[in-house]
Amino acid sequence: MSEQRKAVALISGGLDSLLAAHVIQAQGIHVEGINFFTGFCVEGHTHAIRKRDQKKEKRNNALHVAEQLGIKLHIVDIVEGYKQILTHPKHGYGANLNPCLDCKIFMVRKAHEWIRAKGFDFIITGEVIGQRPMSQRKETMPIVSGESGANDLLLRPLCAKNLPLTLPEREGWVDRDRLYDFSGRSRKPQMALAADLGIEDYAQPAGGCCFLTDERYAVKLTDLWRARGSKQYEMDDIMLLKVGRHLRPAGRYKVIIAREEGEGKFMQGYRRQYPHLETVSHGGPFALIDGVVDEADVELVARLVARYSQGRHADEVEMAFTDLAGQTRSLRVRPMRPEQIPQEWLI
Amino acid sequence: MNRHVIDCRRLLCPMPVIRVQNAVASLPDGSRVEAVCTDPGALNDIPAWSRINGHRLIETRTDDGEYIIVVEVVHGESP
User: Fold this and answer.
1) Does domain A6-196 have CATH number 3.40.50.620?
2) What is the ipTM of this complex?
């Protein structure tokens, strides 16, 4: 009896990777999934924060796909290694701060390291030629396989017939005739294949899974880098870019004001790491200060935050400011009027 | 019985899953991992991760705004 071959499938949680893994499983290959966490994944995060999203299903799509396929899933934290990819992408950015091609190469490289360590035979991705304008084109397919080091150990079952033979096909581990020749941006072939396979429950396909493709997010990240004078970030930075209203009254600091109760609760988890303000005399948002502030700045921030409180029309609002040492003091301020807030403060 | 408490408070999914996964990897069969989370998504994600990787879900409960998930380690045979 021939040895059972083993493949690892990059599972994003979308339809393409689900289909790719399914197609290879159907050929008798033992498949396990791998999912990479960059810190910028939309998955789960924002739904868990905002109160208005509390009723949304908090399902991790990669785990759900693995469960549908009946395969193990290994979630790998690549936050640290990803910093270099995001800050210095060899192949540049897409429409916003999305380094899609470098990201794909990095993930396949990580998967290649993983299969060598675990004794697996090859790698599967759900890539389709022409599906994505930056990372999934005819010209980028060999770049991903070559620069990742995976070379012919990388098999794309959904478009394999449009590409050169890979090792699993040459060795007969996988029957090329039972692979596909999908190409282009249309989702119809994948949806038809899903229907043929009886797969009805899948996440809405294509895009939207990474904050770096979001224009508003990219503007806030660019502002952070500009203010710090270098392209550096920590996990807390990228989490806080996902919540609140961000305003920068001066280069040396910005204010993050919760837009609703869920965000406020989430941001309170950072109260020991950042100076912060709360509204005492009225209902009002929680706010964090990221940067260095003096007395005059605190007064200005208090007036700014009071503008977003229920006391916005009052003559005076009482605020509580807590510094990094944990010392809290009270301020009585007149809320800013909307026309007093320069448009350029809004990030 | 070994019981390992993992503080996943203030972490958003999938970080609690990754913390549990990394703890489980180095523990022998029968050990129990108790994840203390504040992201309600963990109530779905950690049980799902346990099911697909063959570990045994012992308990999920909510306690004063925290979500506690207890998993028993079962390392299956590799193919």
Assistant:
1) yes
2) 0.92
